[in-house]
């Protein structure tokens, strides 16, 4: 059987939103709460914006939002379905969208962890430093390396899920593998649909960062960490709710970061 490689949900953003619905815009609301809690100014850069749902929520909350992604398909979908922000194509491992142009950078859903190497992470943080005004915020939400690297291998049996969209049922089989040497969580996902389409094989990976390791990188690039905790957040259980205070531990499978660019070197 033929099988093509790619990313079904990135290539078809409407499927992404069907597979991962967020009608309450929980991630965007959590990000806006952080921006308000730490008194960020109105100009926001959303890195790894995906389909644009969170960027559009921040725009609706009164922010001036520039939203960046590497996927042309995602950006085209965002411009059509979630207008308001200025959508641009950029690689988060190194970008230049205007020096000192933003009061805050937001990076949700583990987008920061596509920086697989130390050099890529340095490039990301250096670009954020150059894009932010002194005192600007970096707000990020990601998987927690301490949770995954401190445990046994992920389940050997692949996880199976399915959803139906416009009469077609899509079935995914997902296997995770820890690459401890590279500190990567590698994912292989196979997609099949009952409409006779060709199966798709996806291979992706996320860098797994320990909380103290992340603190070290941030400090080296001129940031002071204001909050670094495992929840509550938009993808924790139970999820974040308005008024919830930031946590004080970093043991769970998610990590939530708020850091401020120091006003002096």
Write up this protein.
This protein is of the alpha/beta class. It has two domains: 19-144 and 209-261, Rossmann fold; 149-206, GSPII I/J protein-like (Pantoate--beta-alanine Ligase, Chain: A,domain 2, 2-Layer Sandwich), CATH 3.30.1300. It has helices spanning 8-11, 13-19, 26-37, 53-60, 72-81, 118-131, 145-149, 211-220, and strands spanning 4-5, 43-47, 64-69, 86-89, 102-107, 132-143, 159-165, 168-179, 184-193, 200-207, 223-229, 254-261. It has a seven-stranded mixed beta sheet, with helices on both faces. Strands 1-10-9-8-7 form a five-stranded mixed beta sheet. Helix 3 packs across helix 4 (53-60). The longest helix is centred in the middle third of the chain and has 14 residues, at 118-131. The mean pLDDT is 94.
Strand count, sense and barrel status of the largest sheet are: 7 strands, mixed
> How many individual domains?
2
**CATH class division of the largest domain:** Alpha Beta
Q: Taking strands numbered 1, 2, ... along the chain, how are they ordered across the largest sheet?
A: 4-3-2-5-6-12-11
Quick structural overview:
The chain is of the alpha/beta class and about 260 residues long.
Index terms:
transferase, 265 residues, 12 strands, seven-stranded mixed β-sheet, alpha/beta, 26% helix, Pantoate--beta-alanine Ligase, Chain: A,domain 2, Methyltransf_25, Rossmann fold
Could you outline the blueprint of secondary structure elements for this entry?
Layout (H helix, E strand, L loop, with lengths): L3 E2 L2 H4 L1 H7 L6 H12 L5 E5 L5 H8 L3 E6 L2 H10 L4 E4 L12 E6 L10 H14 E12 L1 H5 L9 E7 L2 E12 L4 E10 L6 E8 L3 H10 L2 E7 L24 E8 L4
Parallel strand pairs: 1-10, 2-3, 2-5, 3-4, 5-6
Antiparallel strand pairs: 6-12, 7-8, 8-9, 9-10, 11-12
Helix pairs in contact: 3-4
Organism: Streptomyces nitrosporeus
Keywords: Methyltransferase, Transferase
Pfam families: Methyltransf_25 (PF13649)
């Amino acid at each position: 059987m033929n099988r093509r490689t790619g990313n079904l949900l990135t290539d078809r953003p409407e499927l992404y939103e069907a597979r991962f619905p967020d009608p309450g815009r929980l991630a965007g609301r959590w990000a806006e709460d952080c921006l308000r809690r730490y008194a960020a100014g109105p100009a926001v850069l959303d890195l790894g914006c995906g389909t644009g749902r969170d960027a559009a929520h921040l725009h609706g909350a009164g922010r001036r939002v520039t939203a960046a992604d590497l996927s042309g398909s995602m950006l085209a979908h965002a411009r059509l379905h979630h207008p308001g922000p200025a959508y641009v194509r950029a690689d988060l491992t190194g970008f230049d969208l205007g020096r000192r142009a933003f009061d805050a950078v937001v990076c949700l859903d583990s987008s920061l962890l596509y920086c697989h190497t130390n050099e890529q992470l340095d490039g990301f943080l250096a670009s954020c430093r150059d894009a932010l005004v002194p005192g600007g915020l970096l707000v990020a939400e990601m998987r927690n390396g301490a949770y995954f690297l401190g445990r046994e291998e992920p389940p050997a049996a692949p996880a199976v899920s399915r959803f139906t969209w416009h009469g077609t049922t899509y079935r995914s089989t997902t296997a995770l593998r820890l690459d401890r040497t590279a500190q990567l969580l590698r994912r292989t996902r196979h997609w099949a649909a009952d409409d006779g389409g060709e199966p798709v094989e996806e291979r992706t990976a996320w860098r797994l960062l320990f909380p103290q390791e992340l603190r070290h990188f941030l400090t080296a690039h001129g940031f002071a960490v204001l909050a670094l905790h495992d929840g509550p957040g938009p993808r924790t259980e139970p999820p974040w709710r308005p008024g919830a205070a930031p946590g004080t531990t970093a043991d769970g499978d998610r990590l939530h970061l708020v850091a401020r660019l120091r006003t002096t070197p």
